[in-house]
Amino acid sequence: MNESPPVVLFDGDCSFCNATVRWSVARDPLARLRFAPLRSAPARRAVSRADPRTNFDALPDTIVLVDRGGVHTASTAVLRMMRHLRFPYPAVSLVLLVPRPLRDAAYRVFARNRYRWFGRDDECPLPPPGFASRFLEDDPD
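^ that's the sequence the OP posted. Answer follows.
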């Protein structure tokens, strides 16, 4: 069985989110993760394939991880993403042991302030050279 790689869906307008994608790619030398802007056709397809019951339009405008375990949002998405990075980052996923309501409360505070603290990009920037193959593509019309 050919398992799809985990996909990180991110807010393409968020400067911090775009920087996080670049940071993640640099710490994922085995190229386990794929990426797509959250409000894109490839993101919609990835969510639909992982869990057709998930309401794509109701997903938060923050980070989403789509993997073999389903569609994950907020702190769970970030922590599960860390599992795919090189050492020592997988150890961060131990924070999953903290009850989700506590983790997500902290995540919401950060997410609510990310534009103020880090700014917005006018448009989703093009991936740096060498990163393009890691991004899901739109299907041609």
